[in-house]
Amino acid sequence: MQTSVNKVILLGTIGDKIEFRHLENGGAICRFSVATYDYFTDKVSSEKKTVTDWHSVTSWGEQAKEIYKQLKKGQQIYLEAKLKMRTWQSKEGVTHKGYELFLDTYIPINANNTNPKVENHYPQEGIPTTPAPLLGFELSDLDELPF
To answer: What is the value of pTM for the model shown?
Structure first.
């Protein structure tokens, strides 16, 4: 049997509001984006430039609840995750592929090295939420996943 490693390590900034909802099976899911940055100097103009990469992150269960309560947009985060490929079809029938990170562990980071108190309260079960689409599919599509 072959062995393999699927591990992504990021240190970045949470880029948008964290989306949270309860699943029909009683579980919980949250999704958020993390920005990472590369800096370089343009060889022609000598201008310093920044390139931002955005990463879609998904967390499940109790960890999803903790993240929603504890973290917020603009906060730095260290995370370790697994890279997963998703395939979906647009309304026009075009097949798309995208990558998503399934969170394993995380550490909230902030400038004064203390955890800020964030007043997010996750929605109660049965209360509908309207998360932003991520990777071209809705959170409701996840209820049909085989895992």
So the answer is: 0.70
